[in-house]
Amino acid sequence: MPDQVSSISRKSKNFMGVKDYCKSDNSQAVIMGLPFDCGTDPIRIGARHGPKSIRTQSQILDPYIFGFSDINPLEKLNLTDFGDLDLTAGKFDDAFEKIETALDYLLINKVIPVTFGGDGMVSLPQMRAMAKHYKDLVVLHFDAHSDAYPIREERYNTATTFTCAAHEKLIDTRNSYHIGCRGPASQPALAEFARQLGYRVISMDQLFDEGPVQVINTIKTNLADRPVYLCWDMDFFDASCVPGVCEPTWGGPSAREGLSILKNLSGLNIVGIDINTVCPPHDQTNMSAHLAANVALLALHLIARD
């Protein structure tokens, strides 16, 4: 890899024991850790440790998924691991530049990036990089929160990720979805604000009232062959499944329901995967990271099957 990219990464134990990334290996998908959080929350700090924890928990996974896929995605995709970028919590400009540079490098080499955050702010520089390569990019954002809040005093925080993306015209908001929004909110009328930005908002109540299969099938029909950036915030799951996330939120799907929803995304043209907000200091069992590793494996199966 070029010097400017190698100089912004650091080594860690690889996901499921795969090899280090090397351009000559012609990998179709690459794991990359983004150990960054804004560092502004007075209590729930620690998402910067998410990538390491997810990789550690991945060591006990097997590559096949019973009853769903007999493909080994590690082999079919020649999956490799880029390591973690060398990021410092709270240093937005430096982190954003490094993330965008690294993603751009992978995309130039026709690789699908599979990234581990970090908090939800890491999604913005990733979208900046992907927008250069996919002019009609859309987002599927599974999250208890829209992360498309009005910008008040500070432009960059975990609540404004998709507000910034809309303002910068990085994605086609009118065909992008926030799915699973629910729970206590810091401001009123947040769903309406996200819709004013152009997004389609599907609350958790709507998702289960209409039925996840029907909702996902409608989304797949609408998106057809569009390039999809899949952003999966782990607090999409109910707090009982993922106590170790930045903002655990009750009323979400169980692990079984959430993974089933992910399986139903098969057939989409997924060009990037972002799994974020695992916060290991708040989960001594590491089950939140273990579930995130399963989400990553299942997402890799979606790419390999399609």
Structural class: alpha/beta
Query: Radius of gyration, rounded?
Result: 17 Å
Summarize the main sheet.
10 strands, mixed
Mean pLDDT over the full residue set: 95
Q: Which range best describes the helical content: under 10%, 10-25%, 25-40%, 40-55%, 55-70% or over 70%?
A: 25-40%
- Based on the structure given, which CATH architecture is correct? 3-Layer(aba) Sandwich
Domain module tally = 1
- Hey, roughly how much beta strand do the residues contain? 15-25%
Supply the CATH class.
Answer: Alpha Beta
Q: In DSSP terms, counting alpha (H) and pi (I) runs of 4 or more, how many helices?
A: 11
Describe the overall structure.
This protein has 11 helices and 10 strands. The chain has a single domain, classed as Arginase, Chain A, CATH 3.40.800. Helix 2 packs across helix 11 (287-305), helix 4 packs parallel to helix 5 (123-133) and helix 10 runs parallel beside helix 11. By secondary structure, it is of the alpha/beta class.
